[in-house]
Design a protein that fits this description.
The protein has 295 residues and is α+β, with helices and mostly antiparallel strands. Helices cover 60% and strands 17% of the residues. It has 2 domains: 10-180, no CATH class; 188-294, LytTr DNA-binding domain (OB fold (Dihydrolipoamide Acetyltransferase, E2P)), CATH 2.40.50.
Length: 295
């Protein structure tokens, strides 16, 4: 049985996202430290101090990215990806960047020594963080959107593969059941006569009798052919129309004309042959004839 192999790797996807975020935090910390030292804006600034503030800001960015995750999962469930979907992605990313900047600006204003002022927030803090954060936040969300799209697409493909595997397994079981009941039943008998082979359709057989270590096949042409086999083996091989009526005889019940239900019961066939029925098989023959009469 074919085993499905997972083509979607959540751990790898999470690792890539963490790497993107980490690179962004470290890069911005170094960048900010460079500008502070270059223009001598502060003598107390340290890399780890700046890293702490950058981590807080990126944490807000990560929280808002869960909206993008949910939207991406919903989008990849669609069968077609249209131009309008790209536009919607872009608008959502712009909205998330704007919200992140506003939240960061409010937090930064609250942490500063300045009194909280809406005018100060709009005129200074939001413009400052827009220029500082908008480009890298936008690129980060775009990267996340692309990663998530491929991740969820692979996830959907994996589900389809699993369905196909289950369907194959189900069909394989049905095939085995049908094969054991139908496909293995003989439609012909291949009888070797000298160096030649005689092909006899099973529908052309009246009955088969045991003949020492062989069997004798009586056919509608009036000929009988010896075949190296046993009645037991043929009984398993032939389909349901053939019944074992005696330890020495199998009869094609489609060829039966009547049942002679005397003290020595027998079947009368279309060629007027009379085949003895053993007492142990009499009920089976009667049940078959009764069922056939009802049908």
């Amino acid at each position: 049985m074919l085993k499905a192999v997972s083509i979607s790797n959540p751990k790898r996807t999470i690792f890539i996202i963490i790497c993107v975020v980490t690179i962004g935090i470290v890069f911005e910390s170094f960048q900010q430290l460079y500008y502070i030292n270059r223009y001598q804006l502060s003598a107390d600034a340290t890399f780890f101090g700046l890293l702490k503030f950058q981590a807080l800001r990126w944490f807000i960015w990560i929280l808002l990215s869960f909206v993008l995750i949910g939207y991406s999962r919903k989008q990849t469930s669609k069968k077609q990806f249209r131009t309008i979907d790209i536009v919607n992605y872009f608008l959502l990313i712009c909205l998330l960047v704007f919200l992140a900047i506003v939240i960061i600006s409010i937090i930064q204003l609250l942490l500063s020594s300045e009194p909280f002022s809406l005018n100060l927030l709009i005129s200074e803090f939001i413009p400052f963080f827009t220029f500082q954060k908008a480009p890298i936040y936008t690129l980060g969300y775009i990267a996340i959107a692309i990663i998530l799209y491929f991740h969820f697409t692979n996830e959907q493909l994996y589900i389809e593969v699993q369905k196909l595997v289950e369907l194959k397994s189900s069909h394989a079981k049905e095939y085995k059941a049908l094969r054991s009941n139908i496909a293995d039943k003989a439609k012909i008998l291949n009888i070797k006569i000298g160096n030649n082979h005689k092909i006899i359709p099973v529908d052309n057989i009246y009955w088969i009798e045991s003949d020492d270590y062989c069997v004798k096949v009586h056919t509608t042409t009036g000929s009988a052919y010896s075949m190296r086999s046993s009645l037991k083996a043929l009984e398993k091989k032939l389909n349901g129309q053939f019944l074992r009526v005696h330890r020495k005889a199998i009869v094609n019940m489609d060829m039966a004309l009547s049942l002679n239900n005397s003290s020595s019961p027998s079947l009368i066939l279309k060629d007027d042959s009379s085949i003895v029925i053993s007492k142990s098989n009499l009920k089976k023959v009667k049940d078959y004839l009764q069922q056939k009469a009802h049908n």
